[in-house]
Amino acid sequence: MRIFSGIRPTGNLHLGNYLGAIKQWIALQEKNECVFCIVDLHAITTPYEAKELQKNILETAIIYLAAGINPEKSIIFVQSQIKEHPELAWLLETITPMGELKRMTQFKEKSAKHKDYVNAGLLNYPVLMAADILLYKADAVPVGKDQEQHVELTRNIAKKFNQKFGQTFKEPASMILKEGAKIMSLTDPKKKMSKSDELKSCIFLFDSPEDITKKILSAQTDSGKDICYNITKKPGISNLLTIYSLLTGKRIQDIEKGFTRKGYGEFKKSLAEVIVQYLEPFRRKQKELSLREVYVEEILKQGQRRALIIAQETIREVKEKMGLI
Question: Does residue 319 have an active-site annotation?
Fold first, then answer.
């Protein structure tokens, strides 16, 4: 299958980003044709620092590589370097109903969060995302729960285009992890882990062992002392158990048994050690790659060349069918 996915370059990625997306990518690249994008055009739909954008793009590329994305097996590139992305988005906007865009949950949430930054790009964000996916005729898109609605819209757009202009696009499926699709905040386990909240609410992939330990030990738990999974009554400890399970490969039931008659403090110390050990290779690789920026930039250029071959063929086919050439 051909797989497409991407992450916005908005600074350091956290454990939720990794477990919800990148960890899945690493497994997928072994048996599939994978296209992984740094979606900088999406990043400018919400407030950002223009001076920081190029640095954030390079840091995101380093994160991809440090986390295990192999440039020999996968295409890694920067969205804005392929002009066919916004070109296809404009063409698809001509067949996308306004009502579909206004009902998007993320548009409503981000409009409410950034009231002084509500722009047409934010409204049309899902069409650009559809263009990202359809440009490479992807079979599937690994996404978190919060992006599932956008992939549904992508399928609707593909179907509408095919009906109107002839069979062109595949209708891509969402690939959502059963566990780990949504890692919650350490300070408020009813909210998704997000780097836009206070720093102690999330574990960044390159946090120091000291910072990781401090954040986990201060993570919000629940009433009672039992280490047991109950997302409704004990959201705090349930979130920590999910992280423990995903990083160790152990079943949650087995972790619960291992901490029978032990308190939250002992469990948190063990979880902190698990996270520190798991992320140590990432920190080591990140330090190495940070000293090899030219190498990272060359990987992005090679990815751009490979992506461009696919993108140009698709846009030519689309414009022919729409009567533009």
Answer: no
